[in-house]
Amino acid sequence: MNIEYENYTDFEARTVYWYFNNSKIALKFSVVISAVYSEKLNNVVVEVYEQNELQFYNLDGSLHFTRKIPQLEKHQFRGINPNLKSGSGVSFLYQPQQVAGNNECIDMLQYEMTLDKDNLLGKKLGIYR
After folding, report:
1. Are 120 and 103 in contact (CB under 8 A)?
2. Angle made by CA atoms 81, 85, 88, in degrees to the nearest 5
3. Considering the entire predicted model, what is its pTM?
4. Residue 51 sits in the same domain as residue 14
5. N or C terminus of the chain with fewer C-beta within 10 Å?
6. Same domain assignment for residues 11 and 40
């Protein structure tokens, strides 16, 4: 399933779309979003960062459920990403918080998005490159 964006400029997408049963399914948002398709969940996962929310959509475009973006102590959430090592097919990206006076490049980390709707944050998958 290909997830695409309309009017995608400067990394600011507000409309995501895909095709299902020969119909274009489009979701429009008032804020910047990011989306990935999870084959394992058979859902499109939309990150609505400004609302601190993940929205899970059925392929027909209907909202399946929503969850808050999981927090990781001493890390800043940076987004969602497809990942075959994750049980859900989706991973979370986190960046360690900068230590004052340290200007070294800090690698982002990937954590599994689990299939458990009550606890989405799973095990560490590795460094995101």
Report:
1. no
2. 65
3. 0.88
4. yes
5. C
6. yes
The domain total for the chain is 2
Side chain identity, residue 23: S
Beta pairing class for 43-48 and 90-96: unpaired
Give φ, ψ of 51 to 5 degrees: -105, 5
Let me know if 97 is exposed, middle or buried by CB neighbors in 10 A (0-12, 13-18, 19+): exposed
Between CA 20 and CA 92 the distance in angstroms is 26
Residue 81 sits in which domain range? 75-128
Residues 35-58 as b or e (16 or more Cβ within 10 Å = b): bbbbeebebbbbbbbeeeebbbbe
- pLDDT tens figures, 74-83: 999 999 999 9
* Closest listed residue to residue 69, CA positions, set 58, 80, 82: 80
User: Span 19-31, mean pLDDT?
Assistant: 95
Looking at the structure, do residues 56 and 81 belong to the same domain, yes or no? no
Q: List, in order, residues 6 or more apart from 18 with CB less than 8 Å away.
A: 1, 2, 3, 4, 24, 25, 37, 44, 59
